[in-house]
Amino acid sequence: MPDRPDDNPDDRPDDDRDGRPDDRPAAPPVNLRRARKARDRAAKRAAADASAAAHGVPGAARSLAAARREKAARDLEAHRREPAPGSPGPDGDG
């Protein structure tokens, strides 16, 4: 039997000086240099993918996409309703 009550292991808190319970293992140490380099590599890879998406398209595909955009704009403009004769237009003149 312990002499003092603070020597009793049942009366001590369940955590060490760092605040973690005794039965939980510590997390593995993190190498900050490796983490920083991995983060930088991921950022460069994302920038490279975006650049490849913008500049890696063949000329024929770019011209086809431009032609489709122009046709869509023409089709949209063709469906525009003209103001009725004698009524004021969007500019206010009629």
Automatic annotation (TrEMBL):
The lineage of its organism: Bacteria, Pseudomonadati, Pseudomonadota, Alphaproteobacteria, Rhodobacterales. Residues 1-25, 67-83 have a biased composition (Basic and acidic residues). This is DUF4169 family protein. It holds the Pfam family DUF4169. Residues 1-94 are annotated as: Disordered. It comes from Paralimibaculum aggregatum.
